[in-house]
Hints:
The protein is α+β, with helices and mostly antiparallel strands. 56% of the residues lie in helices and 20% in strands. The protein is built from eight helices and eight strands. It has helices at 2-78, 135-140, 170-179, 181-186, 239-245, 247-273, 276-286, 292-333; strands at 83-88, 106-110, 123-132, 143-151, 156-163, 192-203, 211-219, 227-234. The strands form two sheets. It has a four-stranded antiparallel sheet with strand order 1-8-3-6, with no helix packed on it. The two termini are 12 Å apart.
Amino acid sequence: MEKKRAVNIRSTLGTTFERGMLYSKQKAEYTAVKAREHARGVMSTTKQVLYNALATVLTFVLIISIAVFMYGTFYYAYMPLEMHEEPVNLQFRACPDQMGLCSFPNASVHLHPKIKLMQGQPYSISLRLEVPDSVNNQALGMFMSCLEVVYSNKNKEHSCKSSILEFRSELLRIIETMAYSPFFLTGTSTQRQWITINYFSKFQDDPHFPAKELILEVQSKYIQVYSATLLVHAEFSGLRHIMYHHPWISTVTGVLSNVVILTLIILMSWTRFFTPEEIEQMDRDSGLKGSLKDEVVAKLAGEQAEKEDDLFNAEKDDIEILKEAVKMGVENIK
């Protein structure tokens, strides 16, 4: 009798242990499934956040690049070169039987393609003469020089100006020679003067018949010249003046303006294509009675609820079995 009772107790405890192990295994599987789903949700959220951050950074870089490119293109197309300097080779007719010149020094400069004048931009046209500070030039006094602009339709525009070297007294010459004598002896400096002659101010090229040639003439046979340079200087005003003399301010303002405009365009495009009204209109146009996303979500939620109900019922059955097994064990012991 005692052996039978011991066998019953052993069988009951074995069954109870097996059921408890099965319950623990099911509970562990359920917990693992829940943890796996939570981990997938966290990974999906993290991936979405990273994708959104990367898309935002790339969009911002693209906007900045386009804004800088637009401002650079506008600057290149709108701003002319501020100063054109073209060396001038003065020509003259030499005297066959005496020293000096038998004609006025003159030169011809072709504008294209060396010098390109922008339409509507005022220019000042000048000639810079580098002359020795010699006794001959000091005794020359005033002299005339002329500039003639030849247009493509053969029309001409003429301007003549008078000039003179800067006066220096004999005492000033002596003091200057003594002070700069080391530089004069070593050849690092020479006694010279620069004369700048302005022929045209506010000169604008004809858009229909642009200027093609400039003819220079110094109307003196006794002037001595080291070199001559033609200066075409753009006289900026308004926006060009600001862009040239304040480049950092104009650059920052232009780039920021382009960034704001591009950002507004992108935001308006996103608002236009991703509004709820557009999605609802797309659903209505496609003839669907409901949202496919809502149906899928509802189906998944129903399946998850059924799984949880089945697991809960299994847990209840296991608990009832354990109670009965314990009760039977206690009766057998008695």
